[in-house]
Amino acid sequence: MDLDRLGEFGLIARLASHIPHRSRRVVKGIGDDCAVYSQPGGNYLVVTADALIESVHFDLNTTTPEQLGWKTVAVNASDVAAMGAAPRFAVVTLGIPKTTKVNFLDRLYKGLGRACEAFGVDLVGGDTVSTPEHWMLSLTMLGETRKKRLFTRKGAKAGDAILMTGTVGDSALGLQILKSPGKKWSGSPADRKHLIQRHLEPTARVKETAKLAKSRLRVTSMIDVSDGLGQDLGHLLSASEVGAELWEASLPLSKPFENTCIKNGLEAGELALGGGEDYELLFTLKSEDVKKLLRSFVNYGTPVTQIGEVTARQGVVWVRTNGRRQTLRKPAGFNHFKENG
Amino acid sequence: MDLDRLGEFGLIARLASHIPHRSRRVVKGIGDDCAVYSQPGGNYLVVTADALIESVHFDLNTTTPEQLGWKTVAVNASDVAAMGAAPRFAVVTLGIPKTTKVNFLDRLYKGLGRACEAFGVDLVGGDTVSTPEHWMLSLTMLGETRKKRLFTRKGAKAGDAILMTGTVGDSALGLQILKSPGKKWSGSPADRKHLIQRHLEPTARVKETAKLAKSRLRVTSMIDVSDGLGQDLGHLLSASEVGAELWEASLPLSKPFENTCIKNGLEAGELALGGGEDYELLFTLKSEDVKKLLRSFVNYGTPVTQIGEVTARQGVVWVRTNGRRQTLRKPAGFNHFKENG
């Protein structure tokens, strides 16, 4: 069988079956944003690893070494945040083409260092090896959380509100702009620059998850939006064995995103739903707590928006701005072994 | 500046300077076999990461997927063992060429699974991504140890005995045989097969380090032999700010290694000193404890041998079998950004 027939998630499930867990201290293995391991002291350790491969995940013609370093840390910090945990420490392995200049590495490490500082992570070690041709970065990050404040993909119940931090779609549109250097884009260059930056220098919602974990708000499930809103919502819903209504009119879109879509005849809703790498938190909350949550985020700096509702009936109903109700069969998003679709 | 002028260890030192540690919980950062992080419960977590790149670290014409999976786990377990710690859990990132067959991956995971079982590790998660061409595997392993039983490279004192587990040189000679398919080797094919297997399926001295950590034997420093006996001894000695006498006549050589060297006119001592990937423990011990240690390893299954002595005077004196004393300037071994030498 070929990899593209199995797909990334089929692959992960198949591979997980080879590796039984032996220790009771493994609270969660493969299948969430992080694995969870119980510590003797009573807290949980969460652990995640993400690899970035040149020409698959990044292009050195369009990203600076500083941005690459930043992003490598941020995408992992986002996974840690999605568990309700605080990032603690990380190790990085770098596969470096032999022709690399030391100056390039210094700049890469500057970016790693800045992101570590921003997200409260200590980079404690790693491995550097040479590669035949392409860059490879793999970062493993560990975080900690109290047992009671662990957020996972499982736990959403019918009637819960679906919310997300920040805005959605910016990164996907930024990537689209980066990938079409020949295209004549209409609208403001500053808008396009903003979108590109959102793709190359994503943030991780470390402070926001800490705020939620400290509060008494009843968060029932959480995931970060990396593969795309539609696909990640799908992961959360299948882990929770529920469905959802998703409201197009409520999606939090940035001004640069809306403007660029309008000026270039792009379907904002579709792009926001299918595009990946927003690194925002997508979570569900007991509906009685929504008002209190929204109040607590007023003047906080990061918008939080309700974008739908959990339903007992499985599947996602995409409520369009024009009132039409579409059933999303297989949510769109990024699959490493298939073309987007 | 080019990477090959800086070398791997120069590079690591330079990069470490970009990343200050913020938390007091970082007991050790870059510069030992593992980083060390203190846990709330009072134990230490140790963490290590090793990446294996196709055509740099392995060749799919000569290694099976099972062996590749096994070795990826074993090399990290060896780093954990070198800290006196017990492996607990690991995450793996796989960079997979798009043309890979699922059957190949199943076999790779079988190897990962077998090694996890052998060394007591739970594989709890990871990331799978596609690569343009070459395989990439990066594994991060976490282990635990009691604070008092942490072994590091620092701590050897003049007069301490230098010991190692197992035998040295097998893996380097196995690699040499693999890399010269056209060469006519003299001696027994079974010997050569053994040496190749020692290269492709190394063990990690997890049980041996547990035995040492549980004992009252005063181990003063430890490292695993991955870059080569000469080079790794050099790391241990510079961390401890001491020197050593290394006795060629005492080096533990396997029969297949000795036979193959003799039949093919190879210098056994030089090869054992310079070759890498033995994944044996190299450690120092208060000289009064040597007898007791050697007694406790009789009939244990893994040989332990004294191969030298720590000296106050820095540098390594290589005492040849013929009685000559040579000063090793720069120990030989593997440098990822230079040719061996």
Automatic annotation (TrEMBL), chains A, B:
ATP binds at Y109, G126, D127, R153, S226. Catalyzes the ATP-dependent phosphorylation of thiamine-monophosphate (TMP) to form thiamine-pyrophosphate (TPP), the active form of vitamin B1. It catalyses: thiamine phosphate + ATP = thiamine diphosphate + ADP. Mg(2+) 1 binds at D50, D127. Pathway: Cofactor biosynthesis; thiamine diphosphate biosynthesis; thiamine diphosphate from thiamine phosphate: step 1/1. GO terms for biological process: thiamine biosynthetic process; thiamine diphosphate biosynthetic process. Mg(2+) 2 binds at D50, D79. Residues 157-316 form the PurM-like C-terminal domain. It comes from Nitrospina gracilis (strain 3/211). Belongs to the thiamine-monophosphate kinase family. InterPro entries: PurM-like_C_dom, PurM-like_C_sf, PurM-like_N, PurM-like_N_sf, ThiL-like. Keywords: ATP-binding, Kinase, Magnesium, Metal-binding, Nucleotide-binding, Thiamine biosynthesis, Transferase. The keyword Transferase applies. The keyword Signal does not apply. SUPFAM superfamilies: PurM C-terminal domain-like (SSF56042), PurM N-terminal domain-like (SSF55326). Reaction mechanism of ThiL seems to utilize a direct, inline transfer of the gamma-phosphate of ATP to TMP rather than a phosphorylated enzyme intermediate. NCBIfam families: thiL. This is Thiamine-monophosphate kinase. Substrate binds at H57, E277, F334. Mg(2+) 4 binds at D33, T48, D79. Mg(2+) 5 binds at D227. GO terms for molecular function: ATP binding; magnesium ion binding; thiamine-phosphate kinase activity. Its EC number is 2.7.4.16. Mg(2+) 3 binds at D33, D79, D224. Residues 31-144 form the PurM-like N-terminal domain.
